[in-house]
């Protein structure tokens, strides 16, 4: 099957899950995660109507942004991987979104390094909703303090929360961490923050995520196929 066909299948999965959850499918944005895949695959997805792409590795992502520079103002580039402080400048200069904010220092650097005249960088706080099994993301009880500190940084616009839950086999088990993230976002909103983004759901658990209120799902394998990592 082609990338266009896989994309259509994923759009159908989102539409069905949204329908089952009595949600409007247009309230769920599909992000195609293109890490490890070439710029030509991004172009094929673009030709099939896809406009938002996620990358995990700074240099690899920027290589594709540059290769597709002619489409730059039609594509939204999302940085979704772990971010070290020596790479924040490139991300602040090149990307539209960062989903993986888990410490204030990284957020402060991104804010300071966002180029003058660019729109604020959209950011999400990554939360560890799976307990000890996962090391990335801020702990849920630390999310509010970090969110309030990030929300006032001038170069950033805090949009919401992101999570990468541990894999689980059943829909019910998959829903547990997604529910936690949604409830945490509700709490932060009640505390005065304006948030509109719940970034959760990947190829294996997008239905559970949409059921629990995901507004952005990040799909790699189901659209571009199985990844092979080379060193
Ligand atoms: C790789 C990745 C995805 C996509 O995962 P699939 O299971 O291939 O859909 C989504 N989010 C993040 C943060 C990732 O690193």
Structure report:
42% of the residues are buried. The protein starts with a helix and ends in a 7-residue tail after the last helix. The protein is built from 9 helices and 8 strands. The radius of gyration is 17 Å and the shape is globular. The longest helix is centred in the last third of the chain and has 20 residues, at 171-190. The protein is of the alpha/beta class and 231 residues long. It has an 8-stranded parallel sheet. It has one domain: TIM Barrel. α4 packs across α5 (104-113). It has helices spanning 3-20, 39-47, 58-67, 88-94, 104-113, 140-151, 171-190, 206-211, 221-224, and strands at 29-33, 52-55, 76-79, 97-101, 121-126, 156-162, 197-199, 216-219. Pyridoxal-5'-phosphate is lined by residues 33, 35, 56, 80-81, 164, 202-204, 218-222.
Largest sheet: 8 strands, parallel
Radius of gyration: 17 Å
**DSSP helical segment count:** 9
Which outline best applies? Answer: globular
* Quaternary organisation: single chain
Instruction: Give the CATH architecture.
Output: Alpha-Beta Barrel
C-alpha termini separation: 28 Å
Q: Can you list the strand order of the major beta sheet?
A: 7-6-5-4-3-2-1-8
Can you list the ligands bound to this structure?
A: pyridoxal-5'-phosphate
State the CATH class.
Alpha Beta
Average pLDDT: 96
């Amino acid at each position: 099957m082609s990338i266009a066909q896989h994309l259509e299948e994923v759009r159908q999965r989102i539409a069905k899950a949204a329908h089952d959850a009595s949600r409007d499918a247009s309230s769920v944005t599909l992000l195609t995660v293109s890490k490890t895949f070439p710029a030509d695959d991004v172009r094929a997805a673009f030709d099939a109507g896809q406009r938002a792409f996620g990358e995990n590795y700074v240099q690899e992502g920027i290589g594709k942004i540059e290769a597709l520079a002619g489409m730059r103002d039609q594509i939204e580039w999302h940085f979704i991987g772990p971010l070290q402080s020596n790479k924040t400048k490139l991300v602040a200069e090149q990307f539209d979104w960062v989903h993986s904010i888990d410490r204030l220092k990284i957020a402060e650097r991104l804010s300071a390094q966002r180029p003058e005249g660019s729109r604020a960088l959209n950011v999400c706080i990554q939360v560890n909703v799976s307990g000890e099994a996962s090391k990335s993301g801020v702990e849920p009880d630390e999310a509010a303090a970090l969110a309030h500190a990030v929300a006032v940084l001038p170069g950033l616009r805090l949009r919401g929360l992101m999570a990468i839950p541990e894999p689980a086999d059943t829909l019910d088990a998959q829903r547990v961490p997604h529910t936690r993230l949604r409830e945490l976002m509700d709490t932060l909103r009640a505390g005065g923050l304006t948030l509109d983004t719940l970034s959760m759901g990947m190829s294996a658990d997008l239905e559970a995520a949409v059921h629990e209120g995901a507004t952005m799902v990040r799909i790699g394998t189901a659209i571009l196929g199985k990844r092979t990592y080379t060193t």
